[in-house]
Design goal:
about 25% helix, about 220 residues, Nucleotidyltransferase, domain 5, 2 domains, five-stranded mixed sheet
Length: about 220
C-alpha cells in the first residue's frame, strides 16, 4: 500500500480517474504543483475520455507525458469502472506505465474518521441481490477491510457516497455524504490508500465460477 505522497515521489506526473459514481472525476497530479481536477455528470463511456482530453489539453501534456495511472476499482458502477479500466489497458499498450487502484469506500471512511466525533459507522454501496459492500469504522477509528454483508446484517450508523446508484432499497436513515475526490484526497495525502493494479479491472470479492457445459444429444421422448 502507498500514499499519494509516495506515489508522486516515484512518479512525477499521474493521471487519476474515478468513474465509480454518476459523476466521472479525473485529475492530473504533479509533484510540487497544484492538482488539476475535472468532473462531469454523464455516462463513463463518454466522460472518461472527454475529461481526460480536457485535462491534458489544459495542462499542456500528452498521454506519453503521464508517468503512472491511478483509478478507482470500486465499489460503484461496474460498467463505469470497467470503462476506465479498458481505457487504461489500452493506453498502457502504447507505453507501459505503472497503474494503481484505490477503494472508493475506504477514501470516504478515512476522510470521515478524521472528523471530530465521527466513530462507529459504516460506509456502504449496493452489491446487488439484497447485499452491500461495506467498510466499517469502529469506536477507535480503525477501518475494516472491504467486505460484503446482506441487508439484514447491516447495523449502526450508515453512510453512502452521493452519486452511487442502488437497486436494493436503502436501509432506513442512511446518510448521503459528498463524494468529491478534489476535497477528500488532499487531507489524506499521507494515508496508505493505493495498491498496485497490474491488470486494471473492476474489484470483485471473489472470482466468478462457471459451470462446465456438457453437450447432450436431444432425443425424442420414448413412447409411453
Amino acid at each position: 500500500m502507498s500514499s499519494l505522497h509516495q506515489l508522486l515521489a516515484l512518479h512525477p506526473t499521474i493521471l487519476l480517474i474515478d468513474s465509480s459514481s454518476t459523476v466521472v472525476q479525473a485529475a492530473v497530479l504533479r509533484r510540487g504543483a497544484e492538482a488539476v481536477w475535472g468532473a462531469k455528470l454523464g455516462e463513463a463511456g463518454e466522460q472518461v475520455f472527454a475529461i481526460t482530453s480536457n485535462l491534458l489539453e489544459g495542462t499542456n501534456l500528452s498521454l506519453e507525458s503521464i508517468d503512472a495511472f491511478v483509478f478507482c476499482d470500486g465499489p460503484g458502477s461496474v460498467l463505469g469502472i470497467r470503462t476506465a479500466a479498458v481505457a487504461l489497458r489500452t493506453w498502457r499498450m502504447l507505453c507501459e506505465r505503472p497503474t494503481y487502484a484505490f477503494c472508493s469506500l475506504t477514501i470516504v471512511a478515512q476522510a470521515l474518521a478524521r472528523a471530530p466525533g465521527r466513530r462507529d459507522f459504516s460506509v456502504i454501496a449496493d452489491a446487488r441481490r439484497d447485499s452491500w459492500h461495506r467498510v466499517a469504522v469502529d469506536t477507535e477509528g480503525t477501518l475494516s477491510n472491504l467486505h460484503r454483508l446482506p441487508t439484514a446484517k447491516l447495523f449502526g450508523a450508515l453512510v453512502m457516497p452521493e452519486g452511487f446508484r442502488h437497486w436494493t432499497e436503502l436501509p432506513a436513515s442512511t446518510e448521503a455524504v459528498p463524494y468529491s475526490l478534489a476535497t477528500l484526497l488532499p487531507p489524506l495525502a499521507d494515508a496508505d490508500l493505493f495498491y498496485a493494479a497490474a491488470e486494471p479491472d473492476a474489484f470483485l470479492h471473489e472470482e466468478p465460477v462457471y459451470k462446465t457445459w456438457t453437450p447432450q444429444v436431444h432425443r425424442a421422448p420414448s413412447p409411453s
